[in-house]
Amino acid sequence: MVKISFQPFAGHKADKEEETQPAVLISQPHQQQVMKRSSVATLCCLTFALLVFTCSLLYACVYIYTHYIIPQVPSQSEFHCSVMYDDTMMAPLRTHTRAHTHARPHTHTHSLDEKVDINLQDNYELISVPVPDFSNTHPAEIIHDFHRGLTAYHDMTLDKCYVSKLNTSVVMAPRNLWELLINVKRGSYLPQRYLLQEQMWVSGRVLDLRPLGPFIANLCSGKDTYTLRPHGNARRVYKRGADSCFGVHHFENTFVMETLICDSQ
User: Fold this and answer.
1) CA-to-CA distance for 238 and 236, rounded, in angstroms?
2) Which candidate in 183, 200, 235, 255 could, as Cys together with 189 as Cys, close a disulfide (CB 3.0–4.6 Å)?
3) In 10 A of CB 80, how many CB atoms?
4) In whole angstroms, what is the distance from residue 158 CA to residue 207 CA?
5) Cα dist. 45→22, 39, 41, 255 in Å?
6) Backbone angles phi, psi at 164, to 5 degrees
């Protein structure tokens, strides 16, 4: 008798083993949650790194500004200025005749010398104008107090003080004037050669100097002090003797300013 037996194939055995082993499945939502947490962590790290970089850059800018830029801008600066300008106003006796003949007015060139002290910390300007090289003007000391919004003229000829509101349209702020004079000193800018005029009238007596601030009070201490009001007409007053007018020439902008102070009393 012949006994015939069959051995199971290896492929069938492997299939059977695969059927008996449990399959491990990864849930898809759980995988997305893990990836989301990883993205949030990366974003937080990048945000923190950007914040640290921004703070470091800000600190470096503050350090450079406080140690290198501020020392180059002193709180107080002194300048000696000499400005050439043209006075195109007609002579008093020829005004009427030349207006009818349409003749061109004479141009007179003058030189204005002054000393300018700029205090950036206290925000004021002190201008000293010596005796000019032409008549009808007086030497003066002028303070533009931007903190109080006042201007004081000390007429050194009459030894009197005159106080008016600060005209910021013609007077540069201390920092701007400082930059202008630096550029003029370097030769990168030349002032204008024209003359601008304003007329002021004495309006009253000042008895208490304390409300004017410490700088103007120090300038006008022991002197007769008066308030000024602007006149609507900016033309030059030729009849100076009738109204007792005098002029003060000064430079605190890109042009020369003539302030006429008149007292009708």
Assistant:
1) 6
2) 183
3) 11
4) 18
5) 41, 10, 6, 58
6) -140, 170
3-state secondary structure of 244: coil
Instruction: For 124-148, write each residue's pLDDT tens digit.
Output: 999 999 887 666 789 999 999 999 9
**Residue 142 has what pLDDT?**
97
List, for residues 13-27, the tens digit of each pLDDT value: 445 445 555 554 555
The four Cα atoms 146, 147, 153, 154 give a dihedral, to 10 degrees, of -140
* Tokens linked to 162: 């005159």
For residue 137, count CB atoms less than 10 angstroms from its CB and return exposed for 0-12, middle for 13-18, buried for 19 or more: buried
Three-state SS at 46: helix
CB 258 within 8 A of CB 248: yes
What stretches of the chain adopt beta strand conformation (E)?
76-87, 108-119, 124-129, 140-145, 150-155, 160-165, 195-206, 224-230, 245-251, 256-262
Nearest to 212 by CA among 222, 225, 224, 199: 225
Q: Please name the residues in contact with 171: beta carbons below 8 A apart, sequence gap of 6 or more.
A: 125, 144, 151, 252, 253
pLDDT tens for residues 57-67? 888 888 776 66
